[in-house]
Amino acid sequence: MIFSNLLIQWYLQNKRDLPWRNTTDPYPIWLSEIMLQQTRVAQGMPYFLSFTSAFPTVFDLAKANEEQVLKLWQGLGYYSRARNLHKTAQHIAFDLSGIFPATYSDLLKLKGVGEYTAAAIASFSYNEVVPVVDGNVFRVLSRYFDLDTDIAQASAKKEFAALAFELMPKDNPATFNQAIMEFGALQCVPKSPNCGICVFNESCAALQKNKVDQLPVKSKKLKVRNRYFNYMVVADENDNTIIQKRTEKGIWHNLYEFPLMETEKEEDFDCVSEAVQAEYFKDNTVESMLEYNEKSIIHKLSHQHLHIKFWKVKLKGTIENGIDAETLKTFPFPIVIHNFIEKDL
């Protein structure tokens, strides 16, 4: 109980004033939890405010089209979150009459809602006694109790959830869950935490044993794949261009991009221009071609690094289904393409 009391006391004095904390309405809580997966609060906050302004209720989100949702999500990454968010909003609005499931087990059945998100909504909205376990919780508990369980193992979540459940005051699960996550985000940070000002500096086992920087233990290294993207930024005699939708499964599903040539390695001008002349834009003659960026832009995703080059391709005549610069900006793009359009077109 000493741990819980100290933790909650710290939280009440240090917590950030975040809009989704001032309500028990599951809609904004769900929205914030989906947005903050793999995302820091500072980065996610403008998106949360944009979404709640554009879609004040789950019905508004459900009625939006997917491209509207993806456009607002643009830049937040992990776009499957946005697509699942939209589908789940439609399910809640149209199948469940706008009423969110009220238990952890029923929340788990929603598309895009995993154990952590279900636990967060169940405890914050309905005060269900269920612990949240995210990276912050792994870190705080492993350090405080000196646990060297490998958190990359599937069994780790059960072990930490059981411990969190034991520590959790059963009459106040919501505050405990908020507190332990906030403590991990603000105080018990991954690198170089300021243990001198920590409320647990007399009882933290890792601090006593000088092991703070060794915990939590995580063994599994993600293998990163390198990919080489060459984007053809076309301009016809009317300065219209063409884009395409990424319909295949994988990164950036249902977002838009310029015509793409993916290569095995970074290719030079001669190789790319030869391929463009031979294989692309057969209905038009390529008048000229040049590089927008001599050095590849390296866009890092969690599991792959994209080496991106943009090529300006000037075509004779007009292209079918060409779009002008203003229309171009209305489509949802991956952030690296959006930034290129804003800066270079």
From TrEMBL:
It comes from Flavobacterium caseinilyticum. Adenine glycosylase active on G-A mispairs. MutY also corrects error-prone DNA synthesis past GO lesions which are due to the oxidatively damaged form of guanine: 7,8-dihydro-8-oxoguanine (8-oxo-dGTP). This is Adenine DNA glycosylase. It holds the Pfam family HhH-GPD. Its EC number is 3.2.2.31. Its cofactor is [4Fe-4S] cluster. It comes from the Bacteria. Signal peptide: none annotated. GO terms for biological process: base-excision repair; mismatch repair. Binds 1 [4Fe-4S] cluster. SUPFAM superfamilies: DNA-glycosylase, Nudix. Residues 35-186 form the HhH-GPD domain. The keyword Membrane does not apply. The gene is mutY. SMART domains: ENDO3c. The lineage of its organism: Bacteria, Pseudomonadati, Bacteroidota, Flavobacteriia, Flavobacteriales. The keyword Chloroplast does not apply. Keywords: 4Fe-4S, DNA damage, DNA repair, Glycosidase, Hydrolase, Iron, Iron-sulfur, Metal-binding. Gene3D superfamilies: Helix-hairpin-Helix base-excision DNA repair enzymes (C-terminal), Hypothetical protein, domain 2, Nucleoside Triphosphate Pyrophosphohydrolase. GO terms for molecular function: 4 iron, 4 sulfur cluster binding; 8-oxo-7,8-dihydroguanine DNA N-glycosylase activity; adenine/guanine mispair binding; metal ion binding; oxidized purine DNA binding; purine-specific mismatch base pair DNA N-glycosylase activity. It catalyses: Hydrolyzes free adenine bases from 7,8-dihydro-8-oxoguanine:adenine mismatched double-stranded DNA, leaving an apurinic site. It is an enzyme of class 3 (hydrolase). Belongs to the Nth/MutY family.
